[in-house]
């Protein structure tokens, strides 16, 4: 089966290790996310995959072809891999249709279909300096897709966008991937970008992959607090407290999400007394902080009208 495969990719900048023996196989996943804190190496890894950054060692293979770095080829990049940088630029003072025409390898019918998918057909006559950030991002995406890629690499595509344009771009990317069937690797550090979208997640830290797997597995069973924090809010729950809640045979404390608990005004089996510290309205739920003896937990709940200082009972979902 063809696809993307990395084997022991390493890269240094001076004495600093940027990438440390990265290996993975993407062929089984259409939607993969590379996540990590700033400086973890995720953007550099994406450039190496695209053939736009030179690895010191290791091999990148796409569709049974070795991807060469910029020191190994006259024109960096691969014809079937599209890379959209976080810092993309569109040529100034040109009409959008001119920018897209220069990049187009598709028939007029296919190109128009793509413009409709990217929701830019009404922007073709505008100049690039007359566009909003979200419009520029959709046009930059369309320009990459006009080359008929089989793999799309997106580096923080939602950064610097307000919520309206971010949601619009999410819908466009989903429609494009569903319609074309191409695979996509997205770099992000935002759980709101990762959780609803990814099939497979790789977590990077200091140039290494520290955990990878299905998105639900990463979310509910993070390897450590670093991974847990990247995927959203979490609690470090002492094993003594977990035993009170009915969990047995525990060797260590556990990392549990706010949705792992429930709050009630009534006591029940394996419920523990607690007191409300704070309540925050989050739209479809409330985020509450509760004090349990010397510990504090963050919990998501639908219980209405909770007040600071109120006695409640906490149990596991």
Describe the structure.
This protein is an alpha+beta fold. The chain folds into two domains: about 5-230, 3-Layer(aba) Sandwich (Rossmann fold), CATH 3.40.50.300; about 235-315, Nucleic acid-binding proteins (OB fold (Dihydrolipoamide Acetyltransferase, E2P)). It is about 25% helix and about 30% strand. The chain has helices spanning about 40-50, 95-105, 110-115, 135-145, 165-180, 190-195, 215-220, 225-230, 240-245; strands at about 5-15, 15-25, 30-35, 55-60, 65, 80-85, 150-155, 185-190, 200-205, 210-215, 235, 255, 260-265, 270-280, 285-290, 295-300, 310-315. Strand 1 and strand 2 form a beta hairpin. The radius of gyration is 24 Å and the shape is globular. The two termini are about 40 Å apart. It comes from Chryseotalea sanaruensis.
């Amino acid at each position: 089966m063809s696809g993307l495969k990395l084997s022991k990719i390493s890269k240094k900048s001076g004495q600093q290790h940027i990438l440390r023996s990265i290996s993975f196989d993407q062929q089984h996943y259409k939607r993969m996310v590379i996540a990590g804190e700033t400086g973890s190496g995720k953007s550099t890894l994406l450039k190496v995959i695209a053939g736009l950054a030179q690895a010191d060692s290791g091999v990148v293979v796409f569709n049974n072809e070795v991807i060469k770095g910029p020191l190994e080829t006259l024109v960096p990049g691969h014809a079937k891999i599209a890379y959209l940088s976080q810092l993309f630029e569109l040529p100034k003072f040109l009409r959008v249709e001119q920018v897209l025409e220069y990049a187009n390898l598709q028939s007029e019918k296919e190109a128009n279909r793509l413009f409709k998918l990217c929701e830019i057909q009404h922007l073709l006559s505008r100049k690039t300096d007359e566009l909003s950030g979200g419009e520029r991002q959709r046009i930059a995406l369309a320009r990459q897709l006009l080359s008929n890629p089989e793999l799309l690499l997106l580096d923080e595509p939602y950064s610097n966008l307000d919520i309206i344009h971010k949601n619009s771009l999410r819908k466009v990317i989903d429609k494009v991937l569903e319609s074309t069937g191409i695979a996509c690797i997205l770099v992000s550090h935002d759980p709101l970008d990762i959780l609803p979208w990814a099939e497979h997640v790789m977590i990077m830290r200091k140039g290494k992959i520290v955990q990878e797997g299905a998105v639900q597995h990463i979310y509910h069973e993070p390897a450590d607090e670093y991974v847990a924090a990247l995927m959203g809010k979490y609690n470090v729950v002492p094993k003594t407290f977990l035993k009170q809640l009915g969990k047995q045979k525990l060797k260590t404390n556990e990392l549990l999400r706010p949705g792992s608990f429930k709050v009630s005004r009534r006591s029940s089996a394996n419920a523990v007394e607690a007191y409300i510290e704070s309540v925050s309205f989050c739209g479809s739920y409330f985020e509450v902080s509760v004090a349990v003896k010397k510990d504090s937990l963050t919990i998501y709940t639908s219980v209405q009208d909770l007040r600071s200082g109120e006695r409640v009972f906490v149990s596991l979902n």
